[in-house]
Amino acid sequence: MITFENVTFKYNDADFSILENVNLTIPSGELVLVVGKTGSGKSTFLGLINGLVPNFSGGNFSGDVKVFDRSIRDFQPRDFADLVGVVKQDPRSSFVTDNVEDEIAYSMEQLGIANDTMRRRVEEVLDLLGLNELRNRSLSTLSGGQRQRVAIASVLTTNPKVLVLDEPTSALDPSAAEEVLSILQRLVHDLGLTVVLAEHRLERVVQYADRVIVIDQEAEVYADRPVNVFASSQIAPPVVELGRNVGWHPVPLTVRDARRFAEELRIRLEKSKPRNRNNPATQKVVEIENLSFNYPNIRALRNINLEINDGEIVCLMGRNGSGKSTLLNQIVGLLSPTSGNVNILGKKPKELTGIELIKNVGLVPQEPTDLLLSDSVAKECQASDKDAKVIPGTTLEIFEQLISSVSENTHPRDLSEGEKLSLALSIVLAAKPPLILLDEPTRGLDYSAKKILVHNLQKLGKKKHTIILATHDVELAAEVATRVILLADGEIVTDGLANEVLSSSPMFSPQVSKVMAPAHWLTVSDVVYALEELN
Amino acid sequence: MPSAPRRWHKPFVFSETRFLHSGAWWLWAILMAAIAAGTTNPIYLFSIIFVVLTVVKYRKSDAPWSKSIKGFIYAGILIVVIRTFLVIITPDIFGDTVLFTLPQIDLPSIFAGIKIGGAIKANTLYFSFKQGLRFATILICIGAAQSLASPYRLLKSVPAALYEIGLAIIVAMTFAPQLAQDAKRVREAQFLRGRKINGIRSFTKAIVPILEGAMERALNLASSMDSRGYGRKVHQTKIKKTTTNIFMLLGLLGIIFGLSGLLGVFSQANIGLLNLLIGLTLAIFSLFLAGKNASRTKYRADRWEIPEVLVVFTPLVGLVTLKFSEASVLNPPTSPLSLPQIDFVSLSCIFLALFAIFFSPNPPKSYKNLSLNSKFSLNLEKTAA
Amino acid sequence: MIQNNYLTKISLLLTSTIGIFAFFWPFIMQKNSILNNNSDNAGFLLLILVPLVLFVALADVLQGGIDARSLAILGVLTAVVAAVRPLGGQVAGLEPVWAIIIIGGRALGPSFGFVLGSIGILGSAVLTGAIGPWLPFQMIVAAWVGAIAGLLPKLKGNKEIVMLIIYGFFVGFFAGLLLNLWFWPFANGLIPEISFQPGIGFSDQFMRWIRFSLLTSFGFDLPRGILTAILLSFLAKPLLKAMRRMTKKANFNKPVVLHA
């Protein structure tokens, strides 16, 4: 049992309390989902559970947090190691050792647990999380999903009663995310663990949650059953929004619930069609012929043939390692083909450098921070103006159009994920390239930041920019894509209009299309628009 | 020879698949180096190099660190070449085999009339070569240890008092591959922003974001370590800590006085030796105390078993027998120029060290999957453009 | 942060004293020394003694006294040192390493600088497979380099940067000279005018060493000093700023206020 009593917390350099007078009780054995916008204090809330906040972060704390009667006022985070396990978004930055088995044993070594007990528990946990095959592997050779499982395993060996996870699936592809989440569910069901989980991609987790805690700057923090919370909360997965908009009651939380209501809606919309989102094409922008590319030992791309026109918004989808990023790197000229040709606007990207390159094509990398090289937003924008040889102030102007109210003196690394992405995108846009590439842009973005991104991308598409996105985020693809290309094992498996491809693929179909199948609807707004047309 | 033992059935202790204790490989290699330090006979030195490289060939794993021997071989060759070249400042050894004559240069007065060049004799050349070869052999032995022993396992088996040092380096090892990826990504980002990616300026521009990313990760890691119990089992009362400190300070003082004594700063030399011994004892005792203060445990620590003992024993025989060899064998005369002599018993004892291959278990092949990762290797192709 | 009480300071001072012996014993050694019967004796003794003393001192500074934050930063900076080490070229060029250690010591204080210097060199040697008899001596020099960077006077702004650049030149130059000293007694078989000979008096001994250095390494040491200074002129300002920002973020010694 975790109790928050009158908790108020303020960071040292902040002007206001991030959490104010929080009173909550989390009962044992539940899977609890924490939702809230970026910067609302979710991570602070999670940090309080084992005392990382305030003991590690510093700050002003009043009230009390107790985990099974152990108070964070009396104990340090390390004293909670046998009670609370903490798993971060990117487990790579939490790994201490070099291979799987040692990493799993690390906490027990710190607690001074006897050798035979350690041996036994490591074996148990390896079996529980299906990691036995990987036990001798070096951590740097693991895939994202495997890494996350090792991170969970490494905190389970001390037999904690509570597991705290901060966005554990945001870097994972859909199948790896499902794997991790089903493990969490098993831990709750079989071992009676209490799991506290923060996650932006609600569509992935809502179905597993027993309870939802809503953290909002403007309102009191409260906990309730998911059905009650999502009847009214601002943040909600698409299936909930669909239910609310169509007026289903009680609001369905899962695709399965929604399908019970959907029959009637499908009949009503039988004659309607989703809005046409294609922009008329005037020009070929990307031409790829017989492109193959090998890394040492790996064939990353095989025989790719592709033409993309202006105004298209293309989503590249597929598993991790299917060649999405490699294809983007080929188009921007970071890599050169082993065989075949890549042309953008009639030029070979491989031969473009400097100003010529950024005037033609821009890539926002997976970690937008990579693109940010200065120590303040203002300097970053000035540098970008200089790189792109445009009128000083251009980048800042674009940035302020994308996102309002960010202080120019902020260090780029202190921005939120959404702000970082916007800044990186503004830098790319400053040179006005006709072709814009984004690699995994929605990692760590909350719903509102994602909405801003979707809006901006649609606007760019209207302005005849060509946009190519590599993404796992099916909901993003459903919102913006005019065309979807599925890659597997370095080959194009499917290439077609967004609503056809997305609604027919089991792994990559958005919630709305799962609910409305076999009809080809992708987004809530399309359904709502069609309903309005009918009336 | 090297592969011969494989035809016999090895008893199970020797044919297991596991890493030999890293300490055993280090001791083995240091003993080989000690043999090399005791002789300048090229035949002996080449034999040592042969033994060491053969053992490395059959007992290194496929892990990345196994390749470090190569660098040491190159360094060894370089040292032999340079030392041989230094023949020009090697004193003239009595001998008569003049090979060729270089022009002689008189150095400025600060060099006290040193002359460089002149007649180069085969004797002097041979002498220089032997000197270089000895140092190269010692280097190759040390390089072999680094190829044979997993640095990671070595760090894992450091004594409790050195735990924090070991952990800091383990963290560095875990972090290094990520750093390489960060570096690659930052260079790519510079390129994507249309900047130059060659030259010192772009290097220095890249290093700041790399370091910032690194420090950010460090703080994440710290919070993770703390919430996983790091530092919890270091129960230290102030008295215990102070006692440890005082023992150590006294120990260090003892060593200082001991050293001064040994170097003849004081009149009585024996006091020096006594002081040094007392100082060392105190210092080591303080390490022991420090280790006692923490009560962590070690998961599947490498154990010292029969194979370890036998492996360490193999070069010992050679080392001891060499002590009884004649001086003319160990340090063959350079003048008159003659082929180095050998003493069959001591030479064959050196080859006994090859039995390390037989006694040591097979190293596991656990890093196969690393090849998958090679796609992360730095391949920013456009650098040249 | 690394504990910084007077006991730690004394132990680092004593360790440094032994370090001075380790390098300068050829000039201290008297004729009546009992190690005098063979020119290698004292050298081998120190080769064993130095690493031992270093480990004792480091263990004492670190054990129980280093928190997770300092340890993680130490580990990560060690990885950075290892990563920049190969950039210095194959011939033991440590210039980029000096730059990192100097800036680290400056930003995080003399004790941390001492530890960063020694562990950074040790760790990078383990990582790059460059362990050898030279290692303990490099560790001592690097520890000094880091500690002195922290001890230099507190200047602000560009004055500080200029100071670090000048310091960098001296480090690059003298570190090479110092690191020559440990193997000088072992470099036997060269002409007597440049060779170590026990008990011949300080000035004669010193001149021999100077000649040895001029003949062997001086040609490398001067460019090394200049290169270190150049590197620092590029790196000092931004890296110092970045490290100070992160140490502020790391929240060392920041108050945790618990209200009732």
Structure description:
The complex is a heterotrimer of chains A (535), B (385) and C (260). Chain A is α/β, with parallel strands linked by helices and 535 residues long. In chain A, 37% of the residues lie in helices and 22% in strands. In chain A, helix 3 (100-111) crosses helix 4 (115-128), helix 3 (100-111) runs parallel beside helix 5 (144-156) and helix 13 runs parallel beside helix 15. The longest helix of chain A has 18 residues, at 174-191. Chain B is mainly alpha-helical. Chain B has 14 helices and two strands. Chain B has helices spanning 12-15, 22-37, 42-59, 68-85, 122-148, 151-156, 163-192, 199-227, 238-262, 269-293, 306-323, 327-330, 344-351, 355-359; strands at residues 98-106, 115-121. In chain B, strands 1-2 form a two-stranded antiparallel sheet. In chain B, a hairpin with an 8-residue loop joins strand 1 (98-106) and strand 2. In chain B, helix 11 (306-323) runs antiparallel to helix 13 (344-351). The model of chain B is unreliable at 1-8 and 367-385 (pLDDT under 50). Chains in contact: A-B, A-C, B-C. At the B-C interface, helix 4, helix 5, helix 7, helix 8 and helix 9 of B face helix 1, helix 2, helix 3, helix 5 and helix 8 of C.
Number of alpha- plus pi-helical segments of chain A: 20
Query: Oligomerization state of this entry?
Result: heterotrimer
Question: What is the terminal-to-terminal distance of chain A?
Answer: 51 Å
Rg value of chain C: 19 Å
Please state the structural category of chain C.
Answer: mainly alpha
The averaged pLDDT of chain A comes out at: 90
Low-confidence stretches of chain C: none
Order of helices and strands of chain C: HHHHHHHHHE
Helix content of chain A: 25-40%
Uncertain runs of chain A with pLDDT below 50, 5 residues or more? none
